[in-house]
Specification:
Helix content is 58%, strand content 7%. The protein has 613 residues and is α+β, with helices and mostly antiparallel strands. The chain has a five-stranded antiparallel beta sheet with strand order 4-3-2-1-5. A hairpin with a 4-residue loop joins strand 3 and strand 4. The longest helix is centred in the N-terminal third of the chain and has 38 residues. The two termini are 30 Å apart. 28% of the residues are buried. One of its GO terms (biological process) is cholesterol biosynthetic process. GO terms for molecular function: Delta14-sterol reductase activity; DNA binding. It is found in: Cytoplasm; Endoplasmic reticulum membrane; Nucleus inner membrane. Belongs to the ERG4/ERG24 family.
């Protein structure tokens, strides 16, 4: 292992990327693999620097003191005391060649300064962009201050340049204007190039290009495997592979037409001018998108439409009879939608691309999503698919399974197991739609682009995998007693209480940390201006909302009994998903909060499961 020059906690001088300026920083950590130091600036910014970009304070001050006698400021002061062009020479006159060299040096300094200042501003702006993506507010006061600094830095240089041009023999004004335009173009081209390089996605998730390519085939295969297994009399994992149906039986034009009708009906409900309009988090360019919060109204209108169909004797169990065809139709639609999203993202401006889906690799960007917020006018495609067709469709599918169970088994009322599954999952969906505004701060909206991953997840995975327990109970009815049902209900209520109270606690603290109702909460201040809660649910484990999610998922599966592990696939999947998200959150928070996050981890050692993980 190579030796380190600088220890953790040591205060040194670090070079700001893209400039020759050094600032006082503190070393926070060292990566033995990349050989990069993580340093923290006084304003809280954390960057990774090479060892060659870091100097000790003693050597820096020593070098500065040696060169202080010939510093640019002193040279400019001494030269300002010499004769001006309007006064006669005193003493020995300079030669014409020395004068030209002196003026050329000054012009060179001006050009270097004019190039360095915009580049420095660019890196500061990229830092602000990162903070916007992380959900951090960026005050306009900070932007105004940076603009004033740039003006103050450029003003004396422009004055010197004007004086030099006034007393030097130069081409005509037209040529000077052309030269200025060319210089400005060169500066902006340099800034644009640096901006493109800095906005590229460097850390690839899901196994990179190979992993995302495999997932594009593995996810649909998993959905179809689960649905085929649920149809078997003995859905044991030992009965692999299940008998495959004929390919022509998987597609039906009528089913695809019904799916399109459902999708566009939800789009119509989304466009209705009902519900309040709120602003999302700031984008990289400072703009805030507007969102209409009417998901709960769309759910009520959908319930009214379904009730009308049932009143006119429409057989809703048609969904159960053609469940595989509906899944194939949804998968085909999600692929077409993903292709459209990627093609349109190629024309999107750089600042509208997703920070997590701008790697430059086609497969990876197609899977994760290249554009952050694709919109057709005011119609936000990602936000619409996040809660509407799939989530509300999940409830409709559960209801169809309940009616199918009653018809197939000649029951006048549904089974107790089916009632529990429908009730628990209905509560979860209604809660999500009632608290729709909270989804605007999630990583799906603020960080992830809209590509195959979210399109397939929202339109296929959520409605057809999350309804797996209800689909399983139709073909494999399970009888449970009332005491068992009561115990499962209590378990679900505990999970829901943890999930909802933890999220409400966090959202209230984010909106107004100084609220007197939250005075009992303690927190660790961070350099970003936010606080990390160390009491309440967030002092119990680092991700209490994930703990509530897992408890609820277990309660949804228990009514299916223990004859087969298939109904518990959702629990296993949910644990894996949340552990992955938790690892991503850990990495994200460590970069965002630095030493404050390390103190928080020491204070709250357990991530999801208390005393276990």
């Amino acid at each position: 292992m190579p030796n380190r020059r600088f220890a953790d906690g040591e205060v040194v001088m670090g070079r700001w990327p893209g400039s020759v300026l050094y600032y006082e920083v503190q070393v926070t950590s060292y990566n033995d693999v990349s050989h990069l130091y993580t340093v923290k600036y006084k304003d809280g910014t954390e960057l990774e620097l090479k060892e060659s970009d870091i100097r000790s304070q003693s050597s820096f001050k020593h070098r500065k003191s040696q060169s202080s006698s010939s510093s640019p400021s002193r040279r400019s002061t001494s030269r300002s005391r010499s004769r001006s062009p309007g006064r006669p020479a005193k003493g020995r006159r300079r030669s014409s060649s020395q004068s030209r060299e002196h003026k050329d040096d000054k012009k060179k300094i001006i050009q270097e300064t004019s190039l360095a200042v915009p580049v420095l501003v660019l890196f500061k702006q990229s830092e602000n962009n990162t903070r916007r993506y992380n959900g951090e507010p960026e005050s306009t006061e900070r932007n105004d201050t940076s603009c004033k600094i740039v003006e103050q830095k450029l003003k004396p240089d422009l004055e010197i340049q004007r004086v030099l041009e006034q007393y030097s023999l130069r081409p005509r004004k037209e040529e000077k204007k052309k030269e200025e335009i060319y210089s400005e173009k060169k500066i902006f081209e340099t800034i644009k190039t640096i901006e493109k390089v800095s906005s590229k996605t460097k850390e690839l998730e899901f196994g990179g290009r190979i992993g995302t390519l495999m997932l594009m085939f593995l996810l649909p295969a998993t959905v179809f495997y689960l649905l085929l297994m649920c149809k078997q009399d003995d859905p044991s994992l030992m009965n692999f592979p299940p008998p495959l149906p004929a390919l022509e039986s998987l597609w039906e034009s009528r089913v695809f037409g019904i799916f399109l009708l459902w999708f566009f009906l939800q789009a119509l409900f989304y466009l209705l001018p009902i519900g309040k309009v709120v602003e999302g988090l700031p984008l990289s360019n400072g703009r805030k998108l507007q969102y209409r919060i009417n998901g709960f109204y769309a759910f009520v209108l959908t319930a009214a439409a379904i009730g009308t169909l049932l009143y006119f004797q429409f057989e809703l169990h048609y969904l159960y009879d053609h469940f595989m065809q509906f899944a194939v139709s949804a998968a085909a639609f999600s692929v077409v939608l993903s292709i459209y999203l990627y093609i349109r993202s190629l024309k999107a401006p750089e600042e509208e691309l997703a920070p997590g889906g701008n790697s430059g690799y086609f497969v990876y960007d197609f899977f994760t999503g290249h554009e952050l917020n694709p919109r057709i006018g005011n119609f936000d495609l990602k936000y619409f698919c996040e809660l509407r067709p799939g989530l509300i469709g999940w409830v409709v599918i559960n209801l169809a399974m309940l009616l199918a169970e009653m018809k197939i088994h000649n029951q006048s009322v549904p089974s107790l197991s089916m009632i529990l599954v429908n009730s628990f999952q209905l509560l979860y969906v209604v809660d999500a739609l009632w608290n729709e505004e909270a989804v605007l701060t999630t990583m799906d909206i603020t960080h992830d682009g809209f590509g195959f991953m979210l399109a397939f997840g929202d339109l296929v995975w959520v409605p057809f995998v999350y309804s797996l327990q209800a689909f399983y109970l139709v073909g494999h009815p399970t009888a449970i007693s009332w005491p068992v049902a009561a115990a499962i209900t209590i378990l679900n209520c505990i999970g829901y209480y943890i999930f909802r109270s933890a999220n409400s606690q966090k959202n209230s603290f984010r909106r107004n940390p100084s609220d007197p109702k939250l005075a009992y909460l303690k927190f660790i201040p961070t350099a970003t201006g936010k606080g990390l809660l160390v009491t309440g649910w967030w002092g119990f484990v680092r991700h209490p909302n994930y703990l509530g999610d897992i408890i609820m998922a277990l309660a949804w599966s228990l009514p299916c009994g223990f004859n087969h592990i298939l109904p518990y696939f959702y629990v296993i999947y949910f644990i894996c998903l949340l552990v992955h998200r938790e690892a991503r959150d850990e990495h994200h928070c460590k970069q965002k909060y630095g030493l404050a996050w390390e103190r928080y981890c020491q204070r709250v050692p357990y991530r999801i499961f208390p005393y276990i993980y």
